[in-house]
Amino acid sequence: MSLSEGDVKRIARLARLEIGAGDAPRYAHDLSAILAFVEQMGSVDTAAVAPMAHPLDAVQRLREDAVTEENGREAFQAIAPRVEQGLYLVPRVIE
Description:
By secondary structure, the chain is mainly alpha-helical. It is 37% helix and 4% strand. It has helices at residues 5-14, 24-42, 73-78, and strands at 83-84, 87-88. The longest helix is centred in the middle third of the chain and has 19 residues, at 24-42.
């Protein structure tokens, strides 16, 4: 698949990206090369390759799911403009 300068300009407009007038040909060339590479990778037979979450055999470090912070609710609500029954009162933003 190859992209034209018009394709690049249209994609940029849809993505609300500004590209220089002289940059469109270079982007078209580079994006076309990327698409050709992706197409080439799609033709590789990967049926015998096991899916993996990470290329290295690494173990995810996990922390204990425990509360480590003190409850500062009363201190925070003491400086809030308006509080009622433990809840922050805020102005209505949607009518």
